[in-house]
């Protein structure tokens, strides 16, 4: 249902505004990106690399350190790229572009790495098609994305308050598998990781999402600020999920490796 996906300009603005706060809030993002990096075959030795949806450039630096090669960091959000440029003087290739229309030559890259960016793209099949075009034979697209079930507690709690869209739509696993299976990549594997983070107060979770730039920019979102009474109802509706560790926030992360035939 691409029409339910957020507007890309709003996505870019939201992440640009979050560039200065993103890194302190990105513990889960670090963990799942590192898990993706660890899945790359030990013998794989790419020389031309792209970090797609690079954000502040954490994994662009990690890729450069691991492979000792120049990396292109590509992102939709100019603010993220400005931040990345300042904090990563050793990397020169920061490019503002959309994952659905890569400004890169066909057969020019060995590795396209993308951590927690592609769930923001309305048309994943198109991203895969672009990645396939840009990869050299034998090249790898390594990406992770969020699946249905992520933030289900927050979605359920909001449903007790109103009918607006408050939480992004995440793809069901079956829909992802069907997109992976129908694309040009013949050789791919997908594994799902479940993560739970815990908070003492709901405000800690909502503040963290804001600091990450993961704002509600969906069509059907409510206008204006959330009033006190509605926040109270939201907090009350979240409370039944509380465990000994605190209020949980669940994340379902699909980790995917795809290879272009050599
Ligand atoms: C959650 S951040 C992840 C950043 C980084 N990969 C990390 O793991 O720290 C998502 C990033 O994807 C970028 N993004 C969203 N939609 C995009 C698109 N269509 N093309 C390129 N980048 C996009 C956002 O601007 C944001 O910087």
UniProtKB/TrEMBL annotation:
Pathway: Cofactor biosynthesis; biotin biosynthesis. Gene3D superfamilies: Vaccinia Virus protein VP39 (3.40.50.150). One of its GO terms (molecular function) is malonyl-CoA methyltransferase activity. One of its GO terms (biological process) is methylation. The keyword Phosphoprotein does not apply. The keyword Cell division does not apply. It catalyses: malonyl-[ACP] + S-adenosyl-L-methionine = malonyl-[ACP] methyl ester + S-adenosyl-L-homocysteine. It comes from the Bacteria. CDD domains: AdoMet_MTases. Residues 50-143 form the Methyltransferase type domain. Its EC number is 2.1.1.197. InterPro entries: BioC (IPR011814), Malonyl-ACP_OMT (IPR050602), Methyltransf_11 (IPR013216), SAM-dependent_MTases_sf (IPR029063). Keywords: Biotin biosynthesis, Methyltransferase, S-adenosyl-L-methionine, Transferase. Converts the free carboxyl group of a malonyl-thioester to its methyl ester by transfer of a methyl group from S-adenosyl-L-methionine (SAM). It allows to synthesize pimeloyl-ACP via the fatty acid synthetic pathway. Belongs to the methyltransferase superfamily. This is Malonyl-[acyl-carrier protein] O-methyltransferase. It comes from Halopseudomonas bauzanensis. The lineage of its organism: Bacteria, Pseudomonadati, Pseudomonadota, Gammaproteobacteria, Pseudomonadales. The gene is bioC.
